[in-house]
Amino acid sequence: MSEDAKVEAQEQLNRVRLKKFYEMASRKFNPAIPRAMDAFLNENDDPVSFIFPLLDQTAVDGPIPLQELLIQTFERWDEICERRGGGCMIPCPINYSSGEISRFRALVEEYAVAHGKFTSLLAQVGGGKDGWVSNEEFEKAMHVFNQHSGELKRVRKRVRKRVDEILAVL
Fold it and tell me: Three-state secondary structure along the chain?
């Protein structure tokens, strides 16, 4: 096995160990939440196949998609329990008021508009999320960036404000 393949295999093993440790710790210290998450799974699926990709994506996208999933779990708790074979003996471990849910969803809509505007401005400037442009396009990109710099800052501030408001709601 090549040295690169060994390093890759070791990194993959470390990721699997971390996922398993997190799963075991979650099940030990707060068993109701993993049970709720398991209710979404096919009986033959490994629980790790669902929760960890979601958490991984949360690290990239922020907490908004995860929060929405938790709200949906709360809203559909009875349906989830019914699919598991009968009534639910355990109350939903997640609790939101209808006001919290409405406020969260309104803020998410505002966030989506602001984020879309920010992404559109980034596309106009060139370079996308990482900001990279080729040497040939650098001068043009800097000119466009300088034209939109103030607007980018305002929209980015608006996006961050919405995220902070969303996190404050829940």
Answer: CCHHHHHHHHHHHHHHHHHHHHHHHHHHHCCHHHHHHHCCCCCCCCCHHHHHHHHHHHHHHCCHHHHHHHHHHHHCHHHHHHHCCCCCCCCCCCCCCHHHHHHHHHHHHHHHHHHHHHHHHHHHHCCHHHCCCCHHHHHHHHHHHHHHHHHHHHHHHHHHHHHHHHHHHC
Predicted confidence band of residue 71 (pLDDT cuts 50, 70, 90): confident
How many Cβ atoms sit within 10 Å of the Cβ of residue 98? 8
Give pLDDT tens digits for 11-47: 888 787 777 777 777 667 666 666 666 655 555 444 4
Lowest mean pLDDT among 3-17, 25-39, 128-142: 25-39
Summarize the confidence of residues 82-95 as an average pLDDT: 76
| Euclidean distance between CA atoms 123 and 126, whole angstroms | 5
Q: Give residues with Cβ within 8 angstroms of 163, minimum separation 6.
A: 62, 64, 111
| CB-based contact 144:125 (threshold 8 Å) | yes
Model pLDDT, residue 113: 79
> Quick one: which of 109, 111, 39, 36 has its CA closest to 70?
36
Return d(Cα 65, Cα 58) in angstroms, integer.
7
